[in-house]
Design a protein that fits this description.
The protein is of the alpha/beta class. About 40% of the residues lie in helices and about 20% in strands. The strands form four sheets. The chain has an eight-stranded parallel barrel, surrounded by ten helices.
Amino acid sequence: MKDRVDIYDTTLRDGTQGEGVSFSKVDKVRIADCLDSFGVSYIEGGWPGSNPKDMAFFNEVKNKKYKHAKIAAFGSTRRAINKVEKDPNIVALLEAETPVTTIFGKTWMLHVTEVLRISPDDNLKMIEDSCAYLHDQKKEVIYDAEHFFDGYKDNSKYAFSTLESAVSGGAEVIVLCDTNGGTMPTEIKLITETVMKQFGSKVTVGIHTHNDCGMGTANSIVAIETGARHVQGTINGIGERCGNANLCSIIPNIELKLNLEALPKGNLSHLKEVSEFVFDLANLRLDNRLPYIGKSAFAHKGGIHVNAMQKTAVSYEHIKPEAVGNKTRVLISDLSGGSNILMKAAEHNIDINSKSSEVRTILNELKTLESEGYEFEAAGASFELLMQKILKKHKSFFCLEGFRVIVEKRGHNSPCISEATVKVNVNDEIELCAAEGDGPVNALDKALRKALVRFYPQIADVELRDYKVRIVDGEAGTSAKTRVLIESTDGKKFWGTVGVSENIIEASWQALVDSVEHKLYSQKK
């Protein structure tokens, strides 16, 4: 059996302290269910003494039977003026009725004397009393040594005494916290080694890092390599300031690079799915460049890279993308070579002979269009249609007879009104339709689909998910070319299209037409 590292997820507590992050009680329950299915060892649900929403979460999950995870309630040690059994925070931890309680205490003398303003000995008593009382109440006690690395560098003897107090009180896990996120990996290694020598045979040693120096993942991995077997972090690294250590990087590094066990066998392939689920509920957009799970993590653009990828994927991919639920993507741009075209064609089930002149024709047309302002990296559907047109395999589903867009404002305080009229020819039958929208492009989109839905009912499900405008050449001012990128969805899949023109409505029209034609062409295949 592989050596195991316990994954402690604090997305629902520490993660919610990140700017722009908020979860409802229902969101938190759904995320907890997801994390349990994923196979993490601990789910920190919140701080029951701090707000009603966290207590509502604990009430909701107290009778749920989780397969893999234990629910943990988080709080601080007792206050100096309170007896432990009467301390409101300790009482709230017990009222949460979780099998695990995680409490933090002060390690850094600065916080003891300047923040708590108590004696060093009183702080040690608070730590030991709190751990002992919770242990006596049959709780699994995890002790978070707040600011441990800063405290150790300031006064190593006292920092160790705080850990000794927690262990004496019955803590089963002591977690070394880089709370300010300012410690370097070499320091993490050396300090964790000293802790392992003294406490490694008595309790589990854990690590909790923040990303203020961009070292959150690196510091966690270094601690694990040094012997820590409990790691805390959040999904996608959300958290206060620059965020917490990112479990979506840490977990695959543990399993694929360190050859240790972090999840039940086979569950790592759900990593990207879990990452996207949490961000969907948080209403946040995933960073494409995140390691392992980002859209760009296995995206290849340079012609030389793609040529090598054709021969052996390991030449430019450090793992198989499928191991973490991701996939290889070939990007198309003016940096592309023939290999990009062939791999992209294969992706869309378009058969092209590698020695055919058509490969060069497509490549030349691509580079010409990119020089004019087109960009196909995020517009795969438009590039697929371009290939079909060059290969003379494309047949338009309709022909534009004309469109008109009106934007009207009828007073200083009145909203703008947008109306579009579209006239199309479908199999020699003319259809003329008008529609209003929130803006001119929205109105144009509605009018186009309204004109076509009688002939192609399947486009009723298509809607715009994202709309981006970029000025291609800013020096030309208001007469500059405009690039419009549209992401569309039918509820099942997403696709991107592009249009370029000096007129933003014309550019939008091009992207809208490609979007509709892609949907119709995909269903025809």
